Amino acid sequence: MEFIKLACRRVKALFTRNAIERDIDDEMRLHMDLLAEEFQRSGMPLDQAKHAARRRFGNLSAIKENARDIRGAGIAGDLLQDVRYALRSLRHSASFTTAAVLTIALGIGINTGIFSILNSIALRSLPAPAASQLVSIYQNFRGVSKRSVHGAGSLFSTSEYESYRDRTQSLTGVMSYSMPSDVTLGGDMPRQTAAVFVSCNYFDVLQLKPTLGLGFTRANCNGANATPVVVLSRDLWKDQFGADPNAIGKNILLNRKSFTVVGVASEGFYGTEIFKSSLFLPISTQPDVLPGLDMYHAERLSWLTMIGRRKDGVSVDQVRADLRIISRQIDQLEPGRTTDIITTRATSVALPEGRQILFSLSTVVLAAFGLVLLIASANVANLVLARAMGRSKEIAVRLSLGATRARLIQQLLTESILIALAGGVLGSALALWSFRGLLTVVLSSLPGDVPPVAIDSSPDLRVLLFAVAVTVAAGIFFGLAPALHASKADLQSTLKQDSGGGGRRTVGLLRGGLVGLQVAVCMVLMIAAGLLLRGLYAAQTVDPGFSYQNVAVVSFDLTSAGYTDDKADLFQRELMDRAKALPGVDSVAQVGRTPLSPGRSGTMFRLPGEERMHPVDFNSVSPEYFSLVRIPIVRGRTFVEEELRGQPRAVIVTEATARRYWVGRDPIGQTLTMGLGPKHETPMEVVGVAKDTQITQIADIPSSYMYVPTNTRAMGLNVLVRGGAGFLKTASVLRTIAHDLDPGLVVRINRLEDNLEFWRTMSRLATSLSAGLCALALAIAAIGVYGVVSYVVSRRLREMSIRIVLGATNQAVRKMIVKQAMRPVAVGVFVGIACAAAVSRILEVVLFGISAFDPLAFLAAPLLLLAIAVAASLVPARRALRADPLAILRYE
Amino acid sequence: MAMKEIDLLQGTLDLLILKTVSSEPMHGYRIAAKIQELSDEVLRIEEGSLYPALYRLEQKGVIQSEWGMTDNNRKANFYRLTRKGRTELESETESWERLSRAVRRVLRAIEQGA
Questions:
Q1: Which of A91, A553, A698, A826 has minimal CB crowding within 10 Å?
Q2: First vs last Cα of chain A: how many Å apart?
Q3: Are the C-beta atoms of residues B45 and B2 closer than 8 Å to each other?
Q4: C-alpha span between A847 and A841 (Å, rounded)
Q5: Whether A58 and B46 lie within 8 Å, measured CB to CB
Q6: Predicted pLDDT at B2
Q7: Tell me, what's the pLDDT at B5?
């Protein structure tokens, strides 16, 4: 009860501040009157008695301030007063306020901006009604022996999905969908577009009824006898049907199969993954659409993601427990296997494997951006500190009048937080507006073969909370140390002396520490940018070890176009023959994966007499491949005709592979067993050794890599064409040939050089981002050094003047100032170099062979930073020296 | 006019205030005067310590204040003990007794022994 009464009084106190103060006044007055009366009784005249009473009473305002604190006009009440006071004093020093707010706005702005993008990728709920009920479900096996994977190992097979769908108790529904695949949309102008195979209840579970048409019905999903149907994205409906409302019931050709349009998805819906899909097909149509690989009927094949909708009042943990019961039942049919169920709130990147990559990536990015905020905050901390020192007299007066230290700290912090708030609001507003534009630029500068992504970076509650948290943290960070410091002022000396606060040494230390911190952080960013810049240069000039100039890559997807082996043989043979006959064409070859294309093909192999399987990257190539891309066969020979048909099985290994597995032996004639596909363990013989080149990743020689022969009956291959009369001409001729052979086939023609472009773009993006951040950091840090030195110089004008009057040269004084200013800078540089060395390895991927400890970057960046710091400290030093020392001394 | 001849131990002032207001509600001046009187002028409570202590105790909920009239019709803030204050007073008194007994014992022992 007492507590409630107290609480009521506190709240009331907020509104009845004046009443409380009046009460305290009344109480004090009575006491003084009574005291005066007592003195009077002991024989003092009235006025003298009053005077004595007042003196006895001591420091009235101290008692009052204390009483107010305890009486709980309290923190909340003071807050209003503090805010008013802070606003007034900030208005009085407009230049300080502007500088501080802008610096913080910059720091908070870029952090909010980058977070809004990460948020939209990894944290934002799916664009569906009541999306918080949706749960993404994955699995993880222990002790599994045989499992095929299409997409990721944590996906489900069709029969597993059906078990969960039918047996769940905790979900109102479970839907599933595949990873997007490219399919050919037929018509006058065939083109490829991304399709996703979805379970029939896909739109029901998401509660996103198609806006046009009924969508899938039960009859569409009866497997073999069902008519093939499709739901289109709104964009595709506009493109393909000109937004015709009568499109429902019409047919479209997908991979040469006819599909009936039964629905159009709602505006802005492109599936639940980050990469956009524009076609939604029942999962049962998968074998028809992508012949040759039946994922729908396959047992133990991971290809489906599941999303369930929770029943009311059921937690995600309860869902997991429920699904675990079902997984145990499935495990019983698969002896030796244990399944762990992974459930997460559904987001557009929910796949555990994807989240892991995204998580480490965003840690690096957020850290880099956070560092800039740190530098900015340190700057403002120094400004606030200088200001607090300038106000040390005011603070000392307030302390001596009885204000408590806590009260003063609260007040100084209020000021800092107000600055941070203003900066936060300004910065966030600018960021949310500008990052959308920035995002468009970045996305459009990505290489062409990166599929379109759906990113909605508009702010939501999470972004808002992030901005507020960062703002308050920044405000406390740059406000607390100066506030603690300033409120510790030594009253005696401060009040007596005109300038300088108490504890000058510690102020200097704090100020130096802040500069050192800035410099260290700046150093890390600069070295990172320096390394990336070197990497960028290396990427433009790197020699991958094969010849990529003047080679056209013809790619097409025969599988999705419904080709048979015979048809593929006919098409590819004809295409290659005609290409070879073109004027200027030197050679034509087939290759599974063009060198340095993103992604990789891997398998396992075993050496004779060994149990252990070794992982290896491999590529399928035709015999002419090596001469076409100028990769020399250093021992043995390339494949011969009969090996292309698989008899006998031959393999060519790289030099590094030979060194690794057949040390001191001749690799030619060695045998191994390669696992091509789950059931095909094939014995093979090494017939040649190819020179090491950068094949899978730029600036990286794979330690084991093998080539297997291929032929024109195989699908999923690219045709390389070297020579011809310029790329554009060759490309158009090749396109005509392909069109002649099959007008319905989508053919892409690129330069082989474009593969390097992918890596160069990554490096360009990373470099421009880090260079931008670095320039920003450098500018802020330089301003910081400049500010501190100016302040110190202005405080030491008198000392400098005396030195000069006593005969010191300007140069000597200047040297003294700069030397002193450089002390924290030097410490910061060393700390920064050490930190950079500790973390620079994470950049290795985009360094293209430049060492993560590249001496040039590690030397040039510190020198540049030091030069800038010296320049920043010289400016105020010179300005001070221009003043007349005698005038200064006379004034003081 | 001795201002403060004995340094009060931390918490002792609180105990004295609680004890003083336990008999009847009284205002600040009366509390100080009464302590001074009862201690034969040895303990003089400075106003600068009295009021903060009163507010603190009130905040703790061991005393409560109310505006009322003094004997000669002046408006004054009267403090009285709450139920919580009574328990507090008992336990504080007891621990004070224990402390002073212990101190006395030490003083005596050293006087006699060494």
A1: A91
A2: 63
A3: no
A4: 10
A5: yes
A6: 37
A7: 45
Predicted local confidence at residue A174, as pLDDT: 93
Selected residue with higher pLDDT from B43 and A706: A706
Contact A788, A382 (CB under 8 A): yes
Dihedral (CA of B61, B63, B65, B66) sign: positive
Cα(A103)–Cα(A582) distance, integer angstroms:
63
Does A812 lie at the interface with B, CB-CB under 8 angstroms? no
State the pairing for strand pair A681-690/A747-751: unpaired
C-alpha to C-alpha distance for B91 and A665, rounded to whole angstroms: 92
Which regions in chain A score pLDDT beneath 50? 73, 498-502
Contact A67 B84 (CB under 8 A): no
* A577, amino acid identity: D
Q: What pLDDT is recorded for position A202?
A: 92
Tell me whether residues B28 and A27 touch, CB distance under 8 A.
yes
Cβ–Cβ < 8 Å for A107, A427: yes
Chain A residues within an 8 Å CB radius of B76: 27, 30
Pick the closest to residue B64 from B16, B18, B31, B32 (CA basis): B18
The answer to whether the CB of B67 falls within 8 A of the CB of B77 is yes
Q: Tell me the residue type at A521.
A: V
Rounded-to-integer distance, Cα B36 and Cα B28, Å: 13
Structure tokens at A50: 């009053």
Give the per-residue pLDDT at A121: 79
Q: What is the Cα–Cα distance from A289 to B64, expressed in whole angstroms?
A: 84
For β-strands A681-690 and A650-654, DSSP reports them as parallel
Cα separation of A439 and A437, whole Å? 5
Instruction: Choose between B91 and A22: higher pLDDT.
Output: B91
Strand partners, A621: A591, A709
Q: Determine the Cα–Cα distance for residues A784 and A771; give it in Å rounded to an integer.
A: 19
Alpha-helical runs (H) found in A349-451: 352-390, 392-400, 405-444
The amino acid occupying position A470 is: V
Query: SS3 sequence, A198-221?
Result: ECCCHHHHHCCCCCEECCCCHHHH
CB atoms within 10 A of CB A49: 19
How many residue pairs bridge chain A and chain B with CB atoms within 8 Å of each other? 54
Q: What is the DSSP code (8-state) at residue A230?
A: E
